[in-house]
Amino acid sequence: DIFDAEIRSVEEHLIPLLKSFPGLSVVFEHLTDGRAAEFVAEADHPIYATVTPHHLMINRNAMFAGGMNPGHYCKPVPKREEHRLKVRSYVTSGNNRFGAGTDSAPHDESAKSRCYGCAAGIFTAPVAVEMYTTVFDEDDSLHNLSAFMSVNLLHLYGMQPSAEMMVIERENNTVPQKIGGIQVFKGGMQLPWKVVR
C-alpha cells in the first residue's frame, strides 16, 4: 500500500541495514510518516531526516480535493492527517535530527496535468523559506527555525553554518500562481512572511 510504503521500508530495509552497519550515518530523505518520524527521533543510531514544506502543510486529502488534484501529487505521497501532525510536531519541536529538504520539483503544467502518468512532485522553491517560517510560526516555534533550516544536518557533511544571513520579515506575501509554465504550490495563497535579504 503506497500510504504504508515508508514505514514498511523502515521495518523491512532500514532496520536490518542499521544492524549490519551500526556506525553508518543515515539521512532519511523527505520523511512523511509519523511512525517513521518517531523511529528517527528515538533511534539509538545516527539517523536523521529531511522534511519538505509541503508535507508539513498538506495531508493526503489534498490530492483529492475538488476531484483528482495532480498539483498535490508527489512522492512520497502525503499521508493521513495524524502523520502530518506528528511529523510537524517533531520538526517544530527543535529536535536536531530533522532538517529542511525542499524536494522542490519544477514540472511543467503539461507534465502535471496528464490523465495518466502525471509527474510526481510539487514546486515550492520560490517560497519554501516563507512556507517553513509560516509552519514554525503557527506552532509558536520560530526560535527553532534557524537550526532546522541551517544547522541540524551540516555536521554529517563536514560543513559549518554559513556566515551569510537571511532576513525574513513579517510581511504579507502572495505566492505566485505560476513561474513560466510551472504551477507553484499554494499559488495565490497569502503567507505572512517574506524573505527580504
Give a structural overview:
It is a single chain. The chain is α/β, with parallel strands linked by helices and 197 residues long. It has 7 helices and 7 strands. It has helices at 5-20, 34-42, 53-57, 81-92, 109-112, 128-138, 145-150; strands spanning 26-28, 47-51, 98-100, 168-174, 178-179, 182-183, 190-195. The strands form 3 sheets. It has a 3-stranded parallel beta sheet with strand order 1-2-3. It has a two-stranded antiparallel sheet with strand order 4-7. The protein is globular, with a radius of gyration of 17 Å. The N and C termini lie far apart (43 Å). The relative contact order is 0.14. The mean pLDDT is 96.
Brief descriptors of the model:
197 residues; alpha/beta; 7 strands; 32% helix
Task: Enumerate the spans where pLDDT stays under 50 for 5 or more consecutive residues.
Answer: none
CA-to-CA gap between the ends? Answer: 43 Å
Q: Determine the number of helices (DSSP H or I, runs of at least 4 residues).
A: 7
Radius of gyration: 17 Å
Strand order of the largest sheet: 1-2-3
In total, the number of strands is 7
Helix content: 25-40%
Largest sheet: 3 strands, parallel
Structural class: alpha/beta
What characteristic shape results from the CA principal axes?
globular
Write down the overall mean pLDDT.
96
Report the sheet-strand fraction: 5-15%
**What's the SSE pattern?**
HEHEHHEHHHEEEE
Question: What's this, in brief?
Answer:
With 197 residues, this protein is α/β, with parallel strands linked by helices. The chain has seven helices and seven strands.
